[in-house]
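Bench notes, afternoon.
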Amino acid sequence: MPPHPINLNEVQKFVEDHIGEFHQRRLEKIRNLKLTDILKRKNPYLFKAKNITDAHDLVKLLLDAYLSSQEETIFGDFLEKLAVFICGQAFNGRKSSAEGIDLEFERDGVLYLVSIKSGPNWGNSGQIRKMVDNFKKAQRILRTNNASLRVQAVNGCCYGQDSQPDKGDYLKLCGQVFWEFISGNDRLYLDIIEPLGHRAKERNEEFLNEYARIINIFTQEFVTRFCNNGSIDWETLVAFNSARESKFSRIPRPPLRA
């Protein structure tokens, strides 16, 4: 069955109606953040090795690294919703109820199970194995009631490229190939870029104002807690990051073998 035509006006409206969620969650992340959150999660040895001596520079590097990973996750959630919406228009696609599966739809007599990721380099080998396990579990359940059902697993990536899409247990479709796969429109990957900028300037100005405020607050707190006579006290910082939590903490013993 050929895809239903995509109404680009409806796609644009969906993006404009929902892109604000990305900006709002991004703003909430930074407003609710504490300095200790980022100090506990980042490697102090790395920054010492890079000879970072300015407290403001160190706080900014820590904050930027944290926010970058958070924004990727938040925006990935938005792109997943957009992909499900678009596939719903083209192939009556729907959010899947199966564990780890984001989208399912039928095309050309095949039921596709799709796990959506932002880009092609999204996970380590353990995370990829987990995705494959989810695919296999969902396929077993579906074939219990219909042994002849044709089911294809797909890892869909919203940007990037992959020159070898057949991974054996699943297909990996990236960028233009992915958006065309769920819509039947080979230009869709270009058509969605313009509406993503809806009110971006004013929303980004709001974020940058909050970002500057947080940088100043965190720098002041960092100087108070982790500087000595104006210099970064690396021992205090490393101890905060890595020292055992109490004198009762011990290295766990390996289990006894029978």
